[in-house]
Amino acid sequence: MNMSASTVSADSVKEKVFNNIRLTKEDGLFLYKECDFLDLAGMAKAKKRQLSGAEVYFNVNCHINLSNVCVSRCKFCAFGRNKEDEGAYSMSPEEAFDYGSAYVETGITEFHVVSAMHPDRQFSYYVDVISRLHNAYPHIHIQGFTAVEIYYFAQISGLSVRQVLTELKNAGLGSMPGGGAEILNDDIRAGLCPNKAGSREWLDVHSSAHELGMKTNCTMLYGHVETLENRIEHMMLLRELQDQTGGFQAFIPLPFLPENTGISHITRTGSLDDLRTIAVSRLMLDNIRHIKAFWIMLTLPIAQISLDFGADDLDGTIVEERIMHAANANTEKGISKSHMVDLIKKSGYIPCERDTVYNILHRYNEGVTEEI
Ligand code: SF4
Is 14 domain-assigned? Predict the structure, then answer.
């Protein structure tokens, strides 16, 4: 029997959570709209502990944003530019290589390569960038290109999505990030980002990547025009694909930052919504192992608190982030490994440096009690 929203209670949801019973859309809406904040946190934290104990993950990476010149010009994006705009830039393959190379000595284990939908670059440019980095530094994992970019590469090259992914994989691409999902609802996409991959295309690209043995992440951009129903439906679409492929490693909720965007009249959603969204996603996405608190957008203090709301990953040290800072993200552009370790330890968790695909490289458990 389906429970209506009015028959869902904290007890009924708790019973499901503690017995590993999948939550329904109505349960998700209850958690968002009615559930006591600390009750929600308690459930999400319990779920996090069930999945990852006292461990909290991070990696040491460097973001390479190849260009901000973009034909899509999504209304929520502060990063994209037209070619002639002030601040427009595009790295040559040599510049991208030099940019990444400069950070190799710092001990990075990941190049995180994301760009925009550039009007003139050929698909061969992206293959070139990946193979240069991979050939020079085969020990460094390359995570690159959102599903939106992959879909665009297929359009500009005349290849299928599967062929694009195969060529990039052969060049050294190891996995894909989760960006471009925004809200998986085509009415919302038609209003905010009509010039890029739709919901089905986004899901299909990830499905193809999973079929090819590549792990990917998934995101949700929230706090703009969507409803709470849209958010829960978005999570359920991800959960459905994960049931089929098992290829998503982490879910990353991203709060919309309005400054310098085409919808800057919208007020930035608050920290309570950020924490609630992290907790709800931890409980709804029972088949996605990790929930990542993307500190660049959340701020470090909220990311730290989110560890008690179900998050188990603080993303990377990043070095220099450009996309969110175009919207004046009120955070550092990167932090040191020791800062990251310190933040996690001070929250009472065990910092674990991981590689991109969640192999643990170092556990910093000195001085941390395992039982929290
Ligand atoms: S969100 Fe991505 S696709 Fe949209 S305008 Fe920005 S860079 Fe381009």
Answer: no
Residue 353 contacts residue 365 (beta carbons within 8 Å): no
Query: HEC string of 228-267?
Result: HHHHHHHHHHHHHHHHHHCCEEEEEEEECCCCCCCCCCCC
DSSP state string for 94-106: HHHHHHHHTTGGG
Q: Is position 1 within any domain?
A: no
Tens digit of each residue's pLDDT (9 = 90 or more) over 112-148? 999 999 999 999 999 999 999 999 999 999 999 999 9
Task: Tell if the pTM clears 0.70, that is, is over it.
Answer: yes
254 CA → ligand 1 middle, Å = 15
The structural domain count of the chain equals 1
How far out from the chain centre does Cα 76 lie?
Answer: 16
Tokens of 170: 């052969």
- Ligand 1 atom index nearest CA of 196: 3
Ligand 1 residue neighbourhood (C-beta within 6 Å): 70, 72-74, 77, 79-80, 116-117, 148, 193, 196
In a domain, 94, yes or no: yes
CA distance 296 to 328: 10
Give the DSSP per-residue string, 25-40: HHHHHHHHHTS-HHHH
Residue 31 has pLDDT above 90, yes or no: yes
Domain of residue 179, CATH code: 3.20.20.70
Give the residue, by CA position, lying nearest to ligand 1 atom 2: 116
pLDDT tens, position by position, 147-199: 999 999 999 999 999 999 999 999 999 999 999 999 999 999 999 999 999 99
pLDDT digits (tens, 9 = 90+) for 291-347: 999 988 899 999 999 999 999 999 877 666 566 656 666 666 678 888 899 999 999
Domain range for residue 45? 38-363
Dihedral, 335, 181, 22, 355 alpha carbons, nearest 10: -40
> Does the residue 17 lie in any domain?
no
